[in-house]
Amino acid sequence: MHLFINSLAASAGGGLTYIRNVIPQMAVTPGLRVTVALSPSLREEFQAFAAVNFIGVEVSSSGRFWHEQFVLPRLIRQCRAEVLLSAGNFALRNSPVPQILLSRNSLYTSRDFYRDLLARHEYRTWLDTHLRGLIARRSIAWAEVTVAPSDAFAAELRRWSGGSEIWTIHHGFDRDAFTRDTSGLPADVDQKLKAAEDALKLLFVSHYNYYRNFETAIRALPLLRDRLAGREIKLLLTCKLASGENPGAYRPEAAAKLVLDLGVSDMVIELGAIPYRQLHHLYRRADVYITPAYTETFAHPLVEAMSSGLPVVASNLAVHREICGDAALYFPPFSPEELADRVTEVATSKTLAARVSEAGLGRAAAFCWRKHVDQLLSLAHKLVGRN
């Protein structure tokens, strides 16, 4: 079978994590030919996979939809692919071959996100998200099958779109690949962590955006300082709360001001972006993983944290409960008080922390990229067989 993958949307976050893990698995699948359309800036990263044909396509985010609809069909025909995997939430309206759509952006369906944008006076982003959401909803109708990374998000897509052909194929995790790098963390990051060695280190892995709800984590810090009096606490962020330091158009100034207003500058360590291959070193240096996100579709860092033996404190989302099960403590997404309570429980009970950590190790083992790829290819074969 010849599979064509449209990964032009993969630039940061979950999209990039996805192709970094899926392409190596597909490259070693017997009887499979793969052609991948991706940004030329990523080509070097995948040069080791000689069995995969890469087509570098330079396209702006604003021009991506036009390029996909009018240029990609010609490329698909030219390489004689048999099935298309659209990996970026938008499908081809007239795909020349059967099409699987990967839908993994919950912003289009999240009422909390739209409310958040209005509260921040981000009217342009609100309108842009609505327009993209219209295309994403139509894309579900254009594709033969839509695949979601969790049961919770698949159910949300069905309610939102009315689509019936929506499958769940969980994203995976490859612990050996994730922990392969031995280079260690950058020197400046290592120095910051050494300075915080005796502190309770709360880790939150994400570039700055609104839906990950950084502000709730920041508001929990003075509460934790009171609850854990006498113990130093640090919030480790893999971003910087400054303009121009993060991908996308999200503005971190309000979060940075909140840090100053609450007097918790000494509790926040802005590490900046950490290369994916080095993240496992960071997880091992932390004590608790937290996420106050108010919408998600899968949340790869949760699996990475569980695999690293960290106890997890997560917002009470159906997706988070599906991924973590009993390997996390939960709190309402917009409650810094209950986030502080859950962290305090873990920080003051070694028995609880050990139980949650142990459960996480077992839970993380349930996710496998090989299994994900096999299920995806099985679906692709079925679609080819229908033609």
Amount of helix:
40-55%
Largest sheet: 7 strands, parallel
How many DSSP helices?
16
Count of strand segments? 13
Please give the alpha-carbon distance between the first and last residues.
13 Å
CATH hierarchy: architecture of the largest domain: 3-Layer(aba) Sandwich
CATH class of the largest domain: Alpha Beta
Would you tell me which CATH topology of the largest domain applies? Rossmann fold
| CATH 4th-level superfamily of the largest domain | Glycogen Phosphorylase B
- Give the class from helix and strand content and strand pairing: alpha/beta
**Number of structural domains:** 2
Rg, nearest Å: 21 Å
Poorly predicted runs of 5 or more residues = none
Give the helices and strands as they follow along the chain.
Answer: EHEEHHEEHHEHEHHEHEHEHEHEHEHHH
What would you call the shape? globular
Strand percentage: 5-15%
